[in-house]
Each structure stands twice: as structure tokens, then as C-alpha cells.
Amino acid sequence: MRRQMFCLFIAASLALAGCKADKPVVAVDSGGSQQGDFGPPQGEPVKAVLTSPPLVPPATGRTAPAKVIVELDVVEKDMEISEGVTYTFWTFGGTVPGSFIRVRQGDTVEFHLRNMPDSKMPHNIDLHGVTGPGGGAASSFTAPGHASQFTFKALNAGLYVYHCATAPVGMHIANGMYGLILVEPPEGLPQVDREYYVMQGDFYTTGKYHDKGHQGFDMEKAIDEHPTYVLFNGREGALTNDKALQTKTGENVRLYVGNGGPNLISSFHVIGEIFDKVWYEGGTKYQENVQTTLIPAGGAAMMEFHMEVPGSYVLVDHSIFRAFNKGALAILKADGPENKTIYSGKEVDEVYLGDKAASAPAGAVAAAVATAATTGNATKDERIAAGKTLFAGTCSTCHGPDGKGMSGVFPPLAGSDYLAKNPKKLPEIILHGLQGKVTVNGKDYNSVMPPMVQLTDDEVANIGTYVLNSFGNKGGEVTRDDAKKARAAKPADAAAAH
Ligand SMILES: [Cu+2]
């Protein structure tokens, strides 16, 4: 060991001087479990500080091995998984993910697991940071209203997942039974300004995404690996709006990110940031300058980055439908002064037509009618016909060719009671888009329709008139003037129309 380090030093300073023939130069390593026993615990036992996500306990600050007492409670409880949707979670410490545990390599951990008397199920815990069969599972098997105890020495430094391993294991994990335990290396981790605890999990409910009311666990979906929700910290919106993670420009942020699974692996990404360092797989070495890091089910990673530019940074699973259609989205908000030399914000927004201006569009009829409309000569039927052609390939991409939309994702335009109530808003919706919560025919949507500013006033009028007179809607007309006024108006707010 000494000799290898010496060689490494020589190799570095003399650039390939000696030391190569007889002994290969290897990277200095931590020695793993064989170097992780620092002897018996010293001093009085300490009680571990446990935190609920997204908080992380303070560094242990210890330089000698200690006896650390961890007291963790299993609580089965109903909580919201999304707005208006409840689910019976099984938890470690009353939260999903469970309480964050922080110890130091070489510590002797006396682990107490209590299962609340009102639990319906027995539970146990398998900590990936434990050296010993089952990671503690058999030793910690605990019936409702019981407590159990076992002790382990944390021989390997790293960030480890813990989870319940009671049969059926998948069901216990799917119900939220996982969390993280950090085993600090003996020298501790580098100082940072903020530390946060985020954990991804996939959830399987009997109803569809956003179906309201209490939802049961769907074993079949779980076996098929078709999650209804993919979430950070156990609830859609757990880390958005007023619950967003907070930081400031100039700060260093460290995220401890775990993936409980039970099924999916995470392509973890922060939109608009680059991880300066990633301790991939929660281990000892770090990679630098990483865009997206893979976190396996039952695995974890630590990442650090420095905040330069203020704004909202979106944490996603870059398997991106999970982010926008299953909930895997969180926000890290950085406050501070603008930094225009690093990021300017939008500098140019101008019309770029390219060849489109010259060549005839696919719908020559539409163009002709649009021209006719411009000159004030088109009949309502002609406008509807022109609107139909424009609808196809613009609105139909999301709302469907027949305007039926897609349950939970794109609201229907066909027989839309929302539209019936607000027909005057239609040109505004087309030109400014729509976001926020909207209820259409009894179903909630909380998504984003992009503004369609590329459409001319005539095109907006034609599409609008077509929509109002199709798909069983009540009729009406959108004029060129309506479109013109809408273009000048401020963006539509879905909530305001209720
Ligand atoms: Cu369990």
C-alpha cells in the first residue's frame, strides 16, 4: 500500500519514471471493508439524528468510531400521492422515502425497528450498507406492535439504499418502504452549502394517472412494470411550488439521490445544470462534468454542482414521459442576481419562415379560402372547411383528429363543457396557450398547451370557427377581429376561467 502510493507519487512527478516493470501502478483505493474496522466504539453511545426528506442530517463530525443508536418506526398511513388522490403508504418514519440515516465508517450501529401497533403487516429492513446475510432483514422482522433490535458495524463508506424485504418484497417497496443511509468516509465529505435528499420511486395504482379518490395497489401493473406514477419523494409535487428545494447563486449544492424502484431505473437529470461531480452508484470515486446519471433500482448517487445562474431548475427522470405524464419532476430554485455573461436569457425572437413563404402549403384550398377570408369574401362554411385543414396537423397532434383528446393528458375539444362555458376564450387559448388546472367534462387536467403564435389572425379565426361547429360543440364563430384582440391580450390563465 505505502509502496504503491510512493510509486504513484513518483509516476506523477517524474512522468513515467520508474516503478513500472515490477509492480503496476494502481489507483489508491479505500481498502473497502478490510480497512473499515477502526476498532471498538469509543465514548458514550450517540443517538442518530434522523431527518425527513428532503432534509439531510448534519455531518457526524466524528473522528473516532462510535456506537450509534438508530430508532426507526414503521408507519402504515394514508397520504396524498397526487392532488385529490390518496394511497395507503407503508413507511419508515412516516415519510416516503423514509428517514435519512447518517453514520461514519467504522461506527457500530445499534438498530431498533418498531412496527406501530395499528399496522396490518409485519415488516423488516434490509440496509445495503450492512455486511451480513440479508442486510439485517431476518434479524429485524417485526410484527405489528413489536420492536426488534440488531447491531452491525458499518465497514464500507458510501450512500446506501435501505428497504423493507418482507414478502411480497415488491409490494412493500412499491408502497414506499425505502430510504437512504449515508456512511461517511472517515475524513467526512467536502463542505457544501446545501444538502438535499431526493428519492425516486414507481407506484402502481388501480386507477389511472390522476383518477381521484383513494387508490389501491395494483399487483398486475407492478408485475408488468407499468407504473401509474413515477415520483420524487412519494408525492406528485412533493418538491414543486412552495415546496421546491431552495438555493442561492454562488452556493454549492449536494444532492443525495436514491432510487427505491421497485422496477424502474432512473436517468436522473437536472435541466439547465451540469453535475460538477457525481459519486456514481453512491461509491467512493467521482466522475466530473456529467449531464445525466443512471441510478439503478436499489441504488443511489451523490452529486454536486455550483449555482451560477438564478432561476428554477427542474429535476427529472430523463425517460421524459415519466416526468411530464407520471409526475417525476421536482424543482430546485436558485435565488440571486442575474448573470448575463453566463446566461443571457432570450435575445432574439423573430419570424423565420424559410421556404415556407414561397412554396404552396399542403392545403392549397385552405390557402385560397384564407385569402378569400382576408378579403372578406369567405362564407362561414368555407371558413369551417379551411379551419378543418388547419386543425389537422396542428391541434389534432394533441387533441386528436376527432377532438376527443386523451384521458388525463389532453382534454377533449369534442363536447367540451369548458369550451361551451368560455367560447370567447378560444382565440386567446390558441394564441397564448393554456396552463394550470382546468376541468373538462368532469376530469382535471394540469398541463401545458403551448401558444400557437405562428398562426395568422385568419387562421385562428378559421380553426376556432371549425372547432366551435364540430365534434358536437354548440356552434358560434371566431372572427379575424376576435383573433386580433386575443393576440394583444395577456396570456390565458386556466384557473381564472372557472
Ligand atoms: Cu414492509
TrEMBL record:
<dbReference type="GO" id="GO:0005507">
    <property type="term" value="F:copper ion binding"/>
</dbReference>
<keyword id="KW-0349">Heme</keyword>
<feature type="domain" description="Cytochrome c">
    <location>
        <begin position="382"/>
        <end position="471"/>
    </location>
</feature>
<keyword id="KW-0732">Signal</keyword>
<feature type="binding site" description="type 1 copper site">
    <location>
        <position position="164"/>
    </location>
    <ligand>
        <name>Cu cation</name>
    </ligand>
</feature>
<dbReference type="GO" id="GO:0020037">
    <property type="term" value="F:heme binding"/>
</dbReference>
<keyword id="KW-0560">Oxidoreductase</keyword>
<feature type="binding site" description="type 1 copper site">
    <location>
        <position position="123"/>
    </location>
    <ligand>
        <name>Cu cation</name>
    </ligand>
</feature>
<feature type="binding site" description="type 1 copper site">
    <location>
        <position position="318"/>
    </location>
    <ligand>
        <name>Cu cation</name>
    </ligand>
</feature>
<keyword id="KW-0186">Copper</keyword>
<dbReference type="GO" id="GO:0009055">
    <property type="term" value="F:electron transfer activity"/>
</dbReference>
<keyword id="KW-0677">Repeat</keyword>
<dbReference type="InterPro" id="IPR009056">
    <property type="entry name" value="Cyt_c-like_dom"/>
</dbReference>
<comment type="subunit">
    <text>Homotrimer.</text>
</comment>
<dbReference type="InterPro" id="IPR008972">
    <property type="entry name" value="Cupredoxin"/>
</dbReference>
<dbReference type="Pfam" id="PF00034">
    <property type="entry name" value="Cytochrom_C"/>
</dbReference>
<feature type="binding site" description="type 1 copper site">
    <location>
        <position position="163"/>
    </location>
    <ligand>
        <name>Cu cation</name>
    </ligand>
</feature>
<comment type="similarity">
    <text>Belongs to the multicopper oxidase family.</text>
</comment>
<keyword id="KW-0479">Metal-binding</keyword>
<protein>
    <recommendedName>
        <fullName>Copper-containing nitrite reductase</fullName>
        <ecNumber>1.7.2.1</ecNumber>
    </recommendedName>
</protein>
<keyword id="KW-0408">Iron</keyword>
<dbReference type="InterPro" id="IPR036909">
    <property type="entry name" value="Cyt_c-like_dom_sf"/>
</dbReference>
<dbReference type="GO" id="GO:0050421">
    <property type="term" value="F:nitrite reductase (NO-forming) activity"/>
</dbReference>
<feature type="binding site" description="type 1 copper site">
    <location>
        <position position="172"/>
    </location>
    <ligand>
        <name>Cu cation</name>
    </ligand>
</feature>
<dbReference type="InterPro" id="IPR051459">
    <property type="entry name" value="Cytochrome_c-type_DH"/>
</dbReference>
<feature type="region of interest" description="Disordered">
    <location>
        <begin position="477"/>
        <end position="498"/>
    </location>
</feature>
<dbReference type="Pfam" id="PF07732">
    <property type="entry name" value="Cu-oxidase_3"/>
</dbReference>
<dbReference type="InterPro" id="IPR001287">
    <property type="entry name" value="NO2-reductase_Cu"/>
</dbReference>
<dbReference type="InterPro" id="IPR011707">
    <property type="entry name" value="Cu-oxidase-like_N"/>
</dbReference>
<feature type="binding site" description="type 1 copper site">
    <location>
        <position position="177"/>
    </location>
    <ligand>
        <name>Cu cation</name>
    </ligand>
</feature>
<feature type="signal peptide">
    <location>
        <begin position="1"/>
        <end position="17"/>
    </location>
</feature>
<feature type="compositionally biased region" description="Low complexity">
    <location>
        <begin position="489"/>
        <end position="498"/>
    </location>
</feature>
<feature type="binding site" description="type 1 copper site">
    <location>
        <position position="128"/>
    </location>
    <ligand>
        <name>Cu cation</name>
    </ligand>
</feature>
